[in-house]
Structures are given as structure tokens and as C-alpha cells.
Design a protein that fits this description.
With about 160 residues, the protein is mainly α. Helices cover about 70% and strands about 0% of the residues. It has one domain. The longest helix is centred in the N-terminal third of the chain and has 31 residues.
């Protein structure tokens, strides 16, 4: 029974990480650490960006929780660390692989969620300035972007 609770805590941390990521993206990346995030909004040739430092920043609490949880035999800390890790993996797949195509998988996907995710992120990237912006989330797609893709599908079916 306790293992089910551990899994639920890990999943809850995963879900909460979307809120943490949204707030960090909105207030830190587009705030005082814009100097690291700016190149993500600009065209460039290289594979690596200053923005990639945020992956390291987010990994530190995950590694720390897993390490401390293991050293102190505290499974709750391990659950928190794993929830952060799982979110990081999902973020990498959604943002770097699916949206930005840094790895060429899912290039021609017609999956509705993937199309919604790409559209929402495209709307985020249309703003090149630090203070302007929209769609700061990474895995959750706001209703207006879901509706846009749904409307596009309906128009395609009619034609």
C-alpha cells in the first residue's frame, strides 16, 4: 500500500513541476535571467544555447533530493527527486525533441496534442522581447491553443 502512496507523491510532484516551470519561465527566464534565455528566442546555428543551463539548474534539486533521500533513508525525498526527474524527461521530449526538433523524432506527427503544443510554443516565440509573452507552460496547453487546433481540424474536414 505504501508503494502506491510513493507513486502518487511522485506523480503529484510531476504535476506541480508544471506550475514551477511556468512560474520560472515567466518570472525568472523572462525576468532577471533573461540573459540566459534570450538566445532561445533568437535564430542561431549552434546546437547548444545559454538557455540550456536551465536544465542543469532544474537537475540540481532532483539530484539533491534523491541523494539526500537515499543517504537518510527518506523515501519521500526520493519521490520528490524522481518527480522532478520525470518532469525533466517529459520537458526534454516535449520541448527539445517535439517542439524544437533538436532530435529529429515526431517530425510529421498529426497527433492533436503535439500540434497544440507546437502551436502554443510558436505563439510564445513570436515575442522576441523579455517583457512581452504568452504561453509560458511546457506540457499543459491552454484552452485557446487547444481550441485553435480543434477549429483547424474542423475546417479541414469541411473542405
Amino acid at each position: 500500500m505504501i508503494y502506491i502512496v510513493y507513486v502518487l507523491v511522485t506523480l503529484a510532484v510531476f504535476v506541480l513541476m508544471e506550475l514551477v516551470a511556468w512560474a520560472t519561465h515567466r518570472w525568472v527566464m523572462h525576468g532577471f535571467l533573461w540573459v540566459l534565455h534570450r538566445d532561445h528566442h533568437e535564430p542561431h546555428d549552434g546546437k547548444l544555447e545559454k538557455n540550456d543551463w536551465f536544465a542543469l539548474f532544474f537537475s540540481i534539486p532532483s539530484i539533491g533530493c534523491c541523494y539526500l533521500g537515499n543517504r537518510s533513508s527518506n523515501p519521500w525525498l526520493i519521490c520528490v527527486g524522481l518527480g522532478i526527474l520525470l518532469y525533466g524527461i517529459a520537458y526534454f521530449l516535449a520541448h527539445d525533441v517535439i517542439v524544437h526538433q533538436r532530435v529529429k523524432w515526431f517530425c510529421r506527427s498529426r497527433n492533436r496534442y503535439i500540434r497544440q503544443l507546437r502551436w502554443a510554443h510558436k505563439m510564445h516565440h513570436k515575442h522576441l522581447e523579455r517583457k512581452k509573452g504568452e504561453s509560458f507552460g511546457f506540457l499543459f496547453v491552454e484552452k485557446k491553443y487547444r481550441d485553435k487546433i480543434k477549429n483547424d481540424e474542423e475546417l479541414q474536414q469541411k473542405s
